[in-house]
Amino acid sequence: MVLLLSHAHPLLARLGARVRTLRKDRGWSRRDLARRTGISERFLADVETGAANPSLLRLWTLAQAFELELTELLAGDAAAPGRRHVALLGLRGAGKSTIGPLLAERLGRPFVELDACIEAVSGMRLGEIFQLHGEAYYRSTERQALLRQLAGAPSVIAASGGIVTDPQSFALLRRAARTVWLRATPEDHWQRVLQQGDLRPMADNEQAFGDLRRILGEREPFYREADVVVDTSAQGVAAVVDAVQLALAEA
Predict the structure, then answer these.
(1) Which of 57, 53, 76 is nearest to 5 (CA)?
(2) Considering only CA atoms, which of 73, 219, 96, 209 is closest in space to residue 157?
(3) What are the pLDDT digits (tens) for 129-176?
């Protein structure tokens, strides 16, 4: 038996807002969600308005559709308090791991590498994730890790380079964080990665630099959607941190 309430209970109202936000973030219509869950559109409408008191099984089904743990679905909207986090965007070699900790120290908040969160959630190294399960699994795990991080205390997040190509995760990030693109030339990306001792970009790929330029070109329109854009090629680390901090304050 389904209990319909004439006045939404605060808990059910929060749940409804959560479901509605998650659905819209993914670009789904209510019919899309109904098809994914087997729950009628009418009942989903009641859930989203806080008028329905769904069973535990239906809550679990909704959580599965959104690729969340049940506790994450019930936790409320991670972005409700506003954009409390700062997220650094850019390809590998943009300077996220260098600028991030210094910026976080200035802002008095922790610095988090989203890739490390993904490894913690999956229990595997990034290379293993791609080798064993592929990109689709990686993106799903990335979304879970991102939701958990956004639900926590304000932080500075170094996002994965390709997060901007996943509409769901990028929408979540932009709703809950002020985004900063650390822009660099392809040559600087290349040299910084090599200076870090990471030769993977060159392995078995004579066209690696051309691939880097292509990927940067494909992602640049998404990176340009960031709230703040700071050029890291023309200035040193301290100057970049100053520029980011000032731009965030002005924004």
Answers:
(1) 53
(2) 96
(3) 888 888 888 998 999 899 889 888 889 999 999 999 999 899 989 989
What's the CATH number for 3-74? 1.10.260.40
Q: Tokens 């309430």 label which residue?
A: 5
Confidence (pLDDT) at 41: 93
Burial annotation 1-35 (CB, 10 A radius, 16+ → b, else e): eeeeeeebeeebbbbbbbbbbbbebbebebeebbe
Q: What is the pLDDT of residues 54-112, one digit of tens each?
A: 999 999 999 888 877 787 787 654 444 468 899 999 998 889 999 999 999 999 999 99
Quote the tokens at residue 223: 């990176």
- Just give the CATH number of 85-250: 3.40.50.300
Instruction: Please determine whether the domains at 3-74 and 85-250 fall in the same fold group of CATH.
Output: no
pTM, rounded to two decimals: 0.67
The full set of domain ranges for the chain reads: 3-74, 85-250
How far apart CA 94 and CA 73 sit, in angstroms, is 33
